[in-house]
Specification:
Layout: H1 5-17, H2 28-35, H3 39-51, E1 55-58, E2 64-67, H4 76-83, H5 87-94, H6 111-126, H7 137-150
Helix pairs in contact: 1-2, 1-3, 2-3
């Protein structure tokens, strides 16, 4: 699975908002500076996230952005769905070789593998909340390992 730049930066913008307290907001400039991205890119991402109901915004000098719900109620699968197109739907159209359509359309031994892997990734992302990604990398890794252990999945790390 590849994580697109839009998914990565959108997730990072949300993580900036996740620890905010009641009534606290971050401006577009603050978010962009903290993540080392342009204000235009941060603005585009926050517009998408706002339109999807994941963030709210207030105009004015005391305004800015905040999460629309608690970080513990926002799951990664809904974030990724908002930030990227459906790779699964376009897979068969992306690898057609020199032809207009894949020669395996209708009878493909690879499609069940792709669909199965997609389902595994979707279930994993549905079990992880934005709140669980807060903290140090080591703490997040421990949390994710516990989640995968509880769900009966095993995670293999590369050396």
């Amino acid at each position: 699975m590849k994580v697109s730049a839009q998914e990565e930066y959108g997730l990072r913008c949300l993580l900036q908002l996740a620890p905010l307290g009641e009534g606290e907001y971050l401006t577009l400039t603050q978010i962009a500076e903290r993540e080392g991205i342009s204000a235009a890119n941060a603005g585009k991402l926050l517009w998408i996230l706002n339109k999807a109901g994941l963030v709210t915004s207030i105009r004015g000098t005391k305004g800015g952005y905040r999460l629309a719900r608690a970080a513990s109620e926002i799951h990664l699968d809904e974030i990724i769905k908002v930030l990227d197109e459906d790779v699964l739907a376009s897979h068969c159209n992306s690898y057609t070789g020199v032809l207009d359509a894949c020669v395996h359309t209708g009878n493909c031994g690879i499609r069940p593998v792709i669909v199965g892997l997609h389902d595994v990734v979707q279930r994993a992302m549905a079990s992880i909340t934005l709140a669980q990604l807060l903290g140090t990398e080591s703490n997040v890794e421990t949390t994710l390992h516990q989640i995968s252990s509880l769900s009966g999945q095993t995670t293999h790390r590369r050396a």
